Amino acid sequence: MLVLTTLGAPERRRLRGRRGAIVQEAGPQAVPTSRATVVTPEPFAGRGEAEGWLTSLRAGGEPQDEVDAAVAILNRALHAHRAARADPHARDVGAGQALAVRIGFGSGESVAEGRYDQAWELPPAARTRTRRSMEGPEERFAVLLGGRDSILVCEELVLRARADLDAGRSREAALQARVALESLLSELGEELEHGRRAALEEDRQAVGDAANSALRGAVPAELDEALRASVTKMEVALRARRLAPPPSPGAERG
């Protein structure tokens, strides 16, 4: 069960007329926050079992599994909201964007209202699955803003395909991946190492089959597996490009 609550909503005051207000200083604006609570339908056998479950998570279990499952449910609701409102700007969210992430137990109504018998507030490092990387996103951000590199179309398309896969939207991911793959092969061109390019060329058939299946209905399991593998290869290819020496000043890559 998903419970959504708005907290601390500022009082809405009517402006005089419809022309807004004249201001001399852009101070901070009070904004509401939203709390999303996912309550599992299967209850614990008793308090002892619940305490043991939470203790095991804190002692080295896999809290990310619990967080990922909750985020997936929230993103399904956001996907439905996006479609119902025809709002392209309503987006998926990740645990790393949350002000706080808590795992706990209590009665259904109390937990829905933010009250627990016992809960653990996760530190930021435990909220998401992270992988070590030599990438310097801040450096590339500066390079992009400085006009010394450009954002490839395939970069955005691969990100969208990954977001759909992570949210369990295999049909959308297959259609995104087909265009992403063709775009990547075209845009990277000779930048792609020969073996990596050959592997991606070989993926065209499976990714195309997955996209064709997506047009008819569900993507079969074997094609879904091939699709995921291909998106990972695309991510690796783009990561290799980002790790390459940046363009010299005055030069533009892209």
Write a structural description:
This protein has 254 residues and is mainly alpha-helical. 50% of the residues lie in helices and 8% in strands. The protein has two domains: 2-8 and 33-126, no CATH class; 137-243. It has helices spanning 47-58, 63-85, 108-112, 137-145, 153-166, 170-188, 194-216, 221-243, and strands at 2-7, 33-38, 102-105, 118-121. The strands form two sheets. The chain has a two-stranded antiparallel sheet with strand order 1-2. The longest helix has 23 residues, at 63-85. 16% of the residues are buried.
The structural class is mainly alpha
- How would you sum up the major sheet? 2 strands, antiparallel
**How many structural domains are formed by the residues?**
2
Strand content: 5-15%
The low-pLDDT segments are none
Mean pLDDT: 87
Estimated radius of gyration: 23 Å
Number of strands: 4
Q: In what order do the strands lie side by side in the largest sheet?
A: 1-2
Shape: globular
* N-C termini distance: 46 Å
Fraction of residues in helix: 40-55%
Question: Which tags fit this structure?
Answer:
two-stranded antiparallel sheet; globular; single chain; 254 residues; 4 strands; mainly alpha; 2 domains
